[in-house]
Amino acid sequence: MKMNCKKCGNDINELDLTEEQKFEIWGMVKQDLKLFATKKIIDDFGLNHKEAKIIISHINSEFGKCNCCENDELNSENIECQKCGAFNYNFTEPIFNSEFCSSLEYSLDFDNLGIDNVVGYWCDGVDCYPNDLKSLSKENIKKHKKVVTRAWIGKGGQGIYEMTIKFGKQSIQNYLSGLNLIDCIPDGEPEKWIKIEPENNKIQVSLK
Ligand SMILES: [Zn+2]
Ligand SMILES: [Zn+2]
Which residues touch 43 (CB under 8 Å, ≥6 apart)? Predict the structure, then answer.
């Protein structure tokens, strides 16, 4: 289906994106890697460069915020801005996002794990782009109940760890219904939900 943008007059292709495609393309736009995002659109959808560029220019990088004006009240996907008439894809925020990853990073308390050789460790980041983006689909979360990604951990926060994030009842439910995962990070009692094997550069965290 084609839509028309009243602001620039271009016809817009409706995009039927999988969760992974959406996550990847939107992630590139947010990081200002528009050339890569354009190339991906060309490759994945067989569109020409001009069509792909038009698509990219209508992806707003933050849900709600128009790509053309100050309006920040866009409340659904594929929407025309009520103020300036510009078309916005207005993708809803992925659930496994950088905000969740940084909350998780700050919740990792290695000093109170009861393991002497990780006292003084800290986490310098959890990668919100797992190698296997397909693992972020709702079907996969439902089936495998986990996401495997990377985290930077150590005394200087720089060792590269394989991090397995296990989903519990509440987090699966939140994921499937599009709700925030931050509330599913346990508070306190780190020994109950964090398992670390520094000798293998592995860590496992269990969400609620
Ligand atoms: Zn436009
Ligand atoms: Zn607008």
Answer: none
C-alpha separations of 43 from 39, 47, 49, 52, 78 in Å: 6, 8, 10, 10, 22
Gap from CA of 37 to ligand 1 centroid (Å): 17
Query: Strands 146-154 and 159-166, how do they pair?
Result: antiparallel
- Owner of token pair 């207005």: 90
What predicted TM-score, i.e. pTM, was given to this entire model? 0.76
**What's the CA-to-centroid distance between 65 and ligand 2, angstroms?**
8
What is the residue type of 106?
Answer: Y
CA of 55 to the centre of ligand 2 (A): 16
Sequence letter at residue 130: P
Residue 1's pLDDT is: 67
Residue 36 has pLDDT above 80, yes or no: yes
